[in-house]
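User: Please predict the structure of the protein below. I'd like the answer in structure-token form so I can feed it into my own downstream comparison script.

Assistant: Understood. Taking the following sequence of 276 residues as input:
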Amino acid sequence: MKKIRFSRVLTLSVTSLLIFLALLFFIFRNNVFVRNLTTPISGFTSKIDSVFSYPFQVVENTKNELVDLYETYSENEKLKKSISEMRDQSSDLNTLKEENSSLSKALEIEKSFSNYKTITSKVTVRSTLSWYESLSLNVGKNDGVSSSMLAVSDGGLVGRVADLSKSNASIQLISNSEGTYEIPVKISGSSGDVYGILTGYNAKKNLLVIEELNADKELKKDDSVVTSGLDGKSIAGISVGKVSSVNDAKELGKRKVYVTPTADLDNISYVTLIGN
């Protein structure tokens, strides 16, 4: 009896397995059925995957943005540093060019006045409070400086020695507000030379003032002005500037000539002292 039951169970199990296998074969042989079955399953799993992957994508994108931001910041800092270094180098280069230009002109002055004593020095003190009044040099009596010497920079007259010690000299600039110690000058006009005295400076117009002219000869714009040396102390032939305008008057004593200075009185780095 037991054998009959076991045989039936075995037969039923084998038959069920065969039917299941046949069913599976039928299902996978039918592409349309498989597609209809797998499409919703794929769509569902895709949505599930999107839901679970979204936070990771956000984190990844945020990380990439932070990395890009940091790299951009680092690059900007490097660029700022490079620009700052380039500006410093450009400033240093401009300073060197200006100093080279001043020294070249100082050498030309020394050659032009080789028959006289010439001493070139770098400006050591120039206060902003007295910028147009005076400046100081680190040369003095021990270096052969005398009180009658005129000061030249960039090829033009800038002042004369005012105070003198063994190792330092104070230069009173021709732009000072107290006058210029009445430096004698010569104006070369088309009608002949006219002599006068350098007496002042118009700060608003950056013009030197010449008065006490010896003649009423015609003077024109751009006529050359140089030192005359007729005081018996200073050197003749130093460039002062060019005539800018003439204020004519009926009385010769009131006639004034305004001169654009040869030297740049704002920018004086080296000074050459010239004298006997």
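That's the full token string. The longest helix spans residues 31-112.
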